[in-house]
Design brief:
The protein is α/β, with parallel strands linked by helices. It is built from five helices and six strands; from the N terminus they run βαβαβαβαβαβ. It is globular, with a radius of gyration of 14 Å. The protein starts with 17 loop residues before the first strand and ends with a strand. The model is unreliable at 1-8, 101-105 and 149-156 (pLDDT under 50).
């Protein structure tokens, strides 16, 4: 079982879990990766959505942190690709966004699409290590109890703000 409390993170096999961070901003990707690495995770960082999808297909991650706004292919489109891939559909995905709902156009359209394919959580940047770990811990607890490991359209979604 994956757990974050007291930095005791392990998969059922006892190995350190893998988090895939997909973010086109190197500083943000490094920050998110470092927070997770400091709490027992192996991490892989990709700065392009397509490279992130290839990485996920090569080695199925235990968690994906996915930026919403990226060049070439955005995070919502990448989420849809993850949910449609039978090997990746049950992987927990956290959308990480710097977009403010009230300030961006078409946010409602993106949220509608995101809700259809159900990320496990949506968090806004900047995110503190404590908040990130709290959100991930909640997701892992839901998955461990079986309530978060259902079909993509049935998974609960947590929208959190700083």
């Amino acid at each position: 079982m994956l757990r974050l409390r007291n930095a005791q993170v392990a998969t059922q096999s006892g190995a350190r879990p893998l988090a895939l961070v997909i973010d086109d901003e190197p500083d943000v990707a490094t920050y998110l990766s470092a927070v997770l690495a400091d709490h027992g995770w192996r991490t892989r960082v990709e700065h392009r959505a397509e490279a992130g999808l290839e990485a996920a297909r090569a080695e199925t991650p235990d968690l994906v942190l996915l930026d919403v706004m990226m060049p070439e292919r955005g995070g919502v489109s990448t989420l849809v690709a993850i949910r449609k891939d039978p090997r990746l559909a049950s992987v927990p995905v956290v959308l990480v966004t710097g977009m403010q709902r009230q300030l961006t156009c078409r946010w409602e359209d993106m949220l509608h699409l995101a809700r259809q394919f159900r990320p496990d959580a949506v968090i806004e940047k900047p995110v503190t290590p404590e908040h990130l770990l709290e959100v991930i811990d909640g997701i892992l607890r839901r998955h461990a109890s079986g309530s978060g490991d259902s079909l993509a359209n049935d998974r609960p979604m947590v929208v959190t703000e700083r």
